[in-house]
Specification:
about 325 residues; Spore Coat Polysaccharide Biosynthesis Protein SpsA, Chain A; 2 domains; eight-stranded mixed sheet; four-stranded mixed sheet; about 40% helix
Length: about 325
């Protein structure tokens, strides 16, 4: 049961939990939210319209509002939850995640800060009852380097408490002002849309607000099988989505010099998730490697095409992002 009565609440916060046919994971996530003090103002679970078990699980947690979707994919689910939210702030949390004790208490000061537009913390992957996190030092937690590469310690542990401004945050432990989230442009982001959180964070920065990481805003992640959506092992589909979203996002937000450096790096060398032209022959020697490389190049081309179309549309209409 969601907290009621005199329990302190973060009245201006809605937690959005997309879920697809994973009632056990959803139950753990909702239970973790119920234990938070202060409690979120509201919780929205976004379920596929035929997810009978997930709907039944939400019914066991009075106060959880259910939004049904028929379109496949995490992007569509998050957008449906976002359109239903009425509060100033929204948090996105995956159904196979569980907020740690004190999650909302650590979040509360930032929600009250007018200079902050987006805030989040670490996601600690739990495999076999143990975390895969490593210890790190310093303040370089999550940044975009000059080539547009994401350098991240978002899944690791810091020795002691740390709060710092960052370039991006994890999408499954991210709290953002609702209107800024709604104004973000995801293009034709497919399926799971890796790098979707980068679009949110850069939109916040473009608005002149801070993106903040706090190690106390911690979430445990128990990676669960994806049912009725993209499988975790579908590397070709992931390569397309990864390349599309990264290309579409950075070509629209980076300044000219960094856009050129990003294109040279990402198209020629690329990354493990989406190898570039020069790296493709190496990946072709591995099972499924060539298909992944080709899918990644298709994603780049589609992302660049849509980014250019968006720029032309803005030039004609004078519309800003």
């Amino acid at each position: 049961m969601m907290p009621e009565g005199n329990v302190p609440r973060l009245a201006e916060l809605t937690v959005i939990v997309p879920s697809a046919y994973r009632p056990e994971a959803l139950a753990r996530c909702l239970a973790g939210l119920e234990r938070q003090t202060p409690a979120p103002g509201s919780v929205i679970a976004v379920l596929r319209s035929d997810d009978v078990e997930g709907t039944a699980e939400c019914a066991a947690h009075p106060g959880v509002h259910v939004v049904s979707v028929q379109v496949r994919g995490l992007v569509a689910a998050r957008q449906a939850g976002l359109m239903s939210a009425q509060t100033e702030w929204v948090s996105f949390m995956d159904d196979d995640a569980e907020p740690a004790p004190g999650w909302s208490a650590a979040l509360a000061p930032y929600v009250a800060d007018p200079e902050v537009g987006c805030v989040g913390g670490p996601i600690l992957n739990i495999v076999g009852a143990r975390t895969t996190a490593k210890w790190f030092e310093g303040h370089a937690i999550a940044r975009l380097d000059v080539f547009g590469r994401t350098v991240s310690h978002l899944h690791d542990l810091h020795d002691g408490h740390i709060s710092a401004d960052v370039d991006f945050l994890p999408g499954s432990n991210l709290t953002i002002r609702r209107e800024l989230a709604r104004s973000a442009d995801h293009g034709r982001a497919p399926g799971m849309a890796p790098n979707e959180e980068l679009e949110w964070c850069l939109t916040v920065k473009d608005a002149g607000l801070r993106v903040v990481y706090d190690s106390g805003i911690r979430v445990a992640h128990y990676p669960a099988a994806r049912i009725g959506t993209e499988a975790r092992g579908d590397k070709s589909a992931y390569a397309y989505a990864y390349a599309y979203m990264l290309t579409y996002t950075l070509l629209r937000h980076l300044r000219l010099t960094r856009r050129v450096l990003f294109v040279l790096y990402f198209w020629l060398l690329g990354q493990r998730a989406a190898p570039g032209i020069l790296a493709a022959p190496i990946y072709a020697l591995r099972p499924g490697g060539w298909a992944k490389a080709v899918s990644g190049m298709r994603g780049r081309a589609a992302g660049a095409r849509d980014a250019m179309w968006r720029s032309r549309t803005r030039a004609v209409t004078g519309d800003g992002e």
